[in-house]
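This protein record is not my work; I was only asked to verify it. Where you disagree with what is written, explain briefly why. This is what I was given:
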Amino acid sequence: MSVEPKLSQSYVNFKQEFYENFKELFSSFSFFILDKDLKFFYVNKKFKSLIKVPILHKPLQNFLGEEEQVLIELLKSLKENDKLIKEIRFNIDNQIFLLKVAIFKNKKNQILCIGLEINENEFIDLEYIHRNELFEIIKLSLECGDLKSFLDKLLLHLTKIPWLSLQSKAGFMINHDEELRLISYYNVSDSLVKMCARVPFGRCLCGKAAETKQIIYKAHVDQDHENMPEGIKPHGHYNVPILHGEQLLGVLFLYIEDGYPKKQEELEFLKKLSPILAMIILRYQADKEYQEAIAKLIRMNEIMVENLKKIHLLEEFIDTYVPDVIKKDSLNKKNKTVNFYIENNYYLLINFHGLIQFSNTFPLQKVYKTIEQYYNPIIDCIVEHKGDVEQYLEDRIFAIFSDSSEIVNCSLKIKEIIHHINEKRKAFYLKPFHFQIAINYGTTFFGIIGSQKRKNWMRFGDTIRWLTSMQKKCEQDQIIVSEFIYMKEKENHQFSKPFKIIKEKNSSQYLIARYLLS
């Protein structure tokens, strides 16, 4: 039995929209996917415009220079979730293209590649600068194992970008049920960390950015800056909402010098950064949720295995200690008010002579071992012949069968077992125990008695009383059977001549019985 982990909707949505978002967000980059055979599975418009030849479903190695063939072996050696950065030299009709590529192998055995073209002769414009910086951030995300470590490195990286002119402090707040929570910060005061640990939408600059879903620029600390940590100094801000469509994932807050003028190129970069960060955050959250779901699944399976073991032990207990008739009553009974049954079955009663006197004379441990010596093989024999032991009555065993041949064959086998045990006991000068075995067929009444706190069962009727009378009249070490048993098995076994058994003293009722000889 297997259990499928239930993943959150965010993970499901992420999985469904993965390629579509990459096509849209990475339109400035060459983006392509290789299948397990290193053939092009998907290429975006940017990469197609660069290559300018049909490439889909063709091997990567057909488009590499000779010096790049070693890359094929490297890609083949990648394992799931492996990441690397590599400059790849493409040779298309003797025209060389150099791409700086971030490479990632996913769980589907596909290799995702995000490339930035390197052209030393190209004029370095603002768009190229932005693309290069976004590429570095994507590369950074592939190098980090979890969201917290990525955000910590991201904040440090952003403050080091020379053309952004940021102060060396920053932070990131994640959206948690329409409340911002500070999960990563760099070089900010302890007072701010405490004051801004949780910020509702609409409060202070981060809350307003979350509420309006617009980048907020502030050249100075003004009335909108509602949270005023101890020791605050004059400064300005960029507060950037991180959006996946209309879904707010968090707010990035950056510091600028007091009075620093708004620069359009910086705002353009931050707008481009927002959806890239959104995709990265979703990937980390999805990975975390997936791992949590897998861990939960593993724990559920462990609990299931533990419960199955308990159920198995309970089944063993029921099979060992509960008569079949009780199992049927508990599991198959449709009318829960019925506690009384009438049944026709074959009944076996085994009596041991002197066992009660023996148990009253010798130490209990010795009595127990002696009883086990006889009872163990006898019970196994009854079960092997499809019988069910219903009761142990001091020195007697009471069992029930549904087939005449099984109960007769079982009785003969038990006779052999007891004879063999007695011979072994005699050899060690131990007391042997003689027996009487009675077999009868007929109708009995079976009833469940007691209260809801404790129930038990009993079987009674003329068939049981006659069985007891037969056992008492039976000769030592013999098997006595009713005439009905004789009529059923006379073709298969040998029996003695018939004789009468009186039910009770001064009673005219009698039963015809015989001894089972072989």
